[in-house]
Specification:
Elements lengths: L7 E5 L3 E6 L4 H5 L9 H16 L5 E9 L10 E12 L2 E10 L2 E10 L1
Antiparallel strand pairs: 1-2, 2-4, 3-6, 4-5, 5-6
Length: about 120
Amino acid sequence: MRLINKMFSIVSEGETVRIQLHPEHVIYQAHFPGSPITPGVCIIQMITEILEKMHNRDMELVQITNLKFVQPLSPIETPVVDIAFSAIVHTDNQYKVRGTVFYDETVFTKFSIIYR
């Protein structure tokens, strides 16, 4: 299921990508009613879709080498977040990606993921 332009939209692009979360999305109705939290799998899918857009190609997740959910991400409390890619290394048909999902001083997720 594609989430871009449904559960979130891109506000600005660059090394850091700013996104707007859409709290009315059906996923937030179930996770959790009255106190919506962005599911971890959706955060990973958002990262994947942003990378696909940046590199103009489909990405297949190969391995999550490190993933830390530091703080719950609420679309009500923090409707806009930044995704910073601190490293994107492309070698041998693989993309090794490292970064952070944050807003101001609050870190929500840290990730290291391998795609092909």
